[in-house]
Amino acid sequence: MLREASYYSRMALGVYKLARAPLEADPEGLVRRTLENREANFLNLMRRVVFANPSNPYYTLFQWAGCTYGDLEHAVASDGLEPTLESLRKAGVYLANDELKGKRPVERSGRQLPVESHQFANPLVRGLLETTSGATRSSGTISRRSLEFQIYREAQTRVLYDQFGLSERPIVGIRSILPSDGGMRISLTFARRGLPYEKWFALGGSFRGSGHYRLVTKFLLLEARVLGAPLKFPHYLPQNDFLPVARWIAQRRSEGLKPILWSNVSGGVRVAAAATEAGLDISGTTCLVGAEPLTEAKREVIEGAGCEAYARYGISELGQVGAACPQMNKDNTVHVCRDSLAAISYRRMAPLTEVEIDSLMFTTLLPCAAFVLVNVEMDDSGVLEPARCDCRLKAMGLTQQVSNIYSYGRLTGQGMTLVGWDILRILEHSLPRRFGGTSTDYQLVEAEGRNQTEMELRVHPRVGAHTPEEIRKFFLSEVKALWGGALTRRSWEHTEGVRVVIAEPYVSGKQRIHPLHLLGTTQQQRRGTTGLAEDLAVPAGEHRGHSGDK
Questions:
Q1: Same domain, yes or no, for 155 and 287?
Q2: Residues 6 or more apart from 419 whose CB is under 8 A from it?
Q3: What is the DSSP string of 247-311?
Q4: What is the CA radius of gyration of the chain?
Q5: DSSP character for 50?
Q6: Beta strands at 341-349 and 356-364: parallel, antiparallel or unpaired
Q7: 275 and which of 30, 224, 280, 506 could share a cystine (Cβ 3.0–4.6 Å)?
Q8: Which pTM was predicted?
Q9: Separation of alpha carbons 110 and 230, rounded Å
């Protein structure tokens, strides 16, 4: 309670300062100037934060790599930023996701360095709004964003999404309430630009389970309104029902307007499906969706309702990673935000799978970034290449795109992010201890459902006489205890997105049982884009023939 009181007190102060802060007068000019100075910004962060601070873990990594600041400066000047980052990765200057979060020590060539996530925080800035969530019994990464970062992100958001006509169209959002600050922060961002949400829908859960989050959300929104920001209070959706959103959009459509829907991917799909099933006209709606992969199956549902779908890509520790332009309407493709970060990739085997992927690594460039990170791996995969469009963003300098984005180490279904290793502890320890069986008797499959991403918990029949509902409730209670779990449980319960199946776990083509089958890696195997044999998972106990069997 003391921790939450401190958290929300800081958030109230952050809302006050942000609501009263002046707007950036020239958003596009700010982004252009930042792009022009990206290499200088990187070197400045390295000089002031890393090489001047022996306690920074990157200081040790650069030492182990035999790279001085002078060497780094020379390499960037002669080779460029991204080639230098590639060389640094090969020399061991990088962070795996588990290393960033302090779950295991940094280990290079037999040497170890214990680390904690707070050691990567940017000492040059003072935190304003804190991004965190839920109760926890395992540590997460707390991002404290400065006022300067929030103002820059507002300008960046305006530049990235003005191309969709934000100032001329009504905006409707499906956004979370606390403990996530995302709904309130984005609502405040738009309101400060004179573009407030006309309607904010939220998955509020029951008042018994989420009442204090509702009350604190309302208090913070009232504070912002007193300070002059015309924010809307969230309208809570009924259990597993997105029809109210579709009806609101259809009403605005009947008035000759074409709304913009700001949501996670599954939320956009659920709205489109609800409109189609009810015979509502929401055609012309632009869905700006993120937080999970925009797969072709999900895009088809949205486009089937006469809408357009464009991807957004963000990561809590990094901010905005990329955004689609109007020409990027396939393959989950976005422009990389080269102003605020640098991106490289390398080929590797995804953990817990037999799939080779292009793992993305990011480096922060903004002087006001919450973290100073070099080649950090966020357990996401994607294809980096020059942007193929001829849009305004490319002309500004956002000349790199990433496509086929998905997470190979985290659950991202319905916009809720949980680290795969945390889920493994539930599958391999908590469930067997509670219901019996072994670690190979439980498997979580993240898969395309009818109109949303769904989680299927497969439990081997030999486990014993337990009802699926009993197992589901226990699983969700264990999820709630994880970092971010309270919000995840609320969402999954609301959408009925978790089901328990008493059936043998799937095995790979190499007859291995992987406890996690994530949406992205499964689709990569099915598409045959990895260069591996297309070994689709089949239930344990079944046998596959040779190449003629499918």
A1: yes
A2: 97, 101, 379, 409, 410, 483
A3: HHHHHHHHTT---EEEEEHHHHHHHHHHHHHHT---TT-EEEEESS---HHHHHHHHHTT-EEEE
A4: 23
A5: I
A6: antiparallel
A7: 280
A8: 0.78
A9: 56
DSSP annotation of 23 = P
What type of residue sits at position 166?
A: L
Burial 224-241 (b: 16+ CB within 10 A, else e): beeeebebbebebbeeee
State which of 85, 120, 155 marks the end of a domain: 120
pLDDT tens across the length of the chain (550 residues)? 676 777 778 888 888 898 899 989 999 999 999 999 999 999 999 999 999 999 999 999 999 999 999 999 999 999 999 999 999 999 999 999 889 988 899 999 999 999 999 999 999 988 776 654 333 333 455 667 888 999 999 999 999 999 999 888 999 999 888 877 778 888 888 888 887 778 999 886 666 767 888 898 999 999 989 998 888 899 999 888 899 999 999 999 999 999 999 998 888 988 999 999 999 999 999 999 988 888 887 899 899 999 999 999 998 889 999 999 999 998 899 999 999 999 999 998 876 565 788 999 999 999 999 999 999 999 888 999 999 999 999 999 999 999 988 877 655 555 555 555 567 778 878 888 889 887 778 888 877 766 677 788 889 888 877 888 899 889 888 887 765 556 666 767 667 778 888 888 876 545 455 666 665 544 444 443 333 222 333 334 433 232 233 2
CB 368 within 8 A of CB 152: yes
Spatial separation of the C-alpha atoms in residues 267 and 277, rounded to whole Å? 15
Nearest to 182 by CA among 527, 451, 491, 453: 491
- Is 503 domain-assigned? yes
Residue with tokens 């497969």, as numbered in its chain = 458
Measuring CA to CA, which residue among 4, 20, 8, 17 is closest to residue 219?
A: 8
N-term to C-term CA, the chain: 54
Residues of the domain holding 272: 146-315
Neighbours of 6 (CB within 10 A): 11
| In-domain check, residue 371 | no
Domain-located, residue 395: no
* Number of domains composing the chain: 3
